[in-house]
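Quick one: co-fold with protoporphyrin IX containing FE.
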Amino acid sequence: MNASDFTLPMTSSLRPACARPLLEALRVAVARPVLLIGMAFALAAGGASRSACADDTLYRQLGEKAGIDKIVVGLMARLHADPRTSEYFINAPDRRIREKLDEQICVLGGGPCTYTGRSMKRSHAGEKITMAAFNALVEDLQDSMDENDIPFRVQNKLLALFAPMYRDIVEN
Ligand code: HEM
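Sure, here it is.
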């Protein structure tokens, strides 16, 4: 995934919730050289602390892959029905958009997915997407999350991650 596509939650650096268990482990390991060497290898490999600490809270709050797909299906239906957005989607590859949006939201939520789609700039280039259409999509996404019983505060977390993308999507 292209880092400029959208703002990723912090997954590759130590967040406070992760730092504490790691420091505790380090304290224990200092007394045991074998453990200390093991930890050094694990950290150098980059995997152990990262996967143990990955914050997938939002992903889980959105209902994981199945829940996210329901939200996206609801969003796509609304985008087709909404007079503010429908024209953009007349000849759009719905199945692909659904699949890529599923991946994108999963990644944004900290879930175990990889985004395999194009950058936001490339996907929307030439679509002449207005700010009004972008705001309409945000409203349609909110409605779909409402329908899927996603709490307001969780909705806001996802919307906050979507909002900055307008820079790469809106053309005028
Ligand atoms: C934060 C807001 C948005 C996100 C996260 C988003 C995400 C995506 C993704 C993941 C794709 C597929 C990328 C690929 O093909 O590799 C896509 C394609 C597309 N999006 Fe968006 N989008 C957003 C806003 C909008 C808006 C506001 C519109 C129009 C109202 C729109 C219209 C389209 C269209 C028409 C395509 C298909 C382009 C094509 O391949 O023909 N998108 N979008």
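If it helps, Residues 85, 88-89, 92-93, 96-97, 100-101, 104, 117-118, 123-124, 127, 129, 133-134, 137, 162, 165, 169 surround protoporphyrin IX containing FE (CB under 6 Å).
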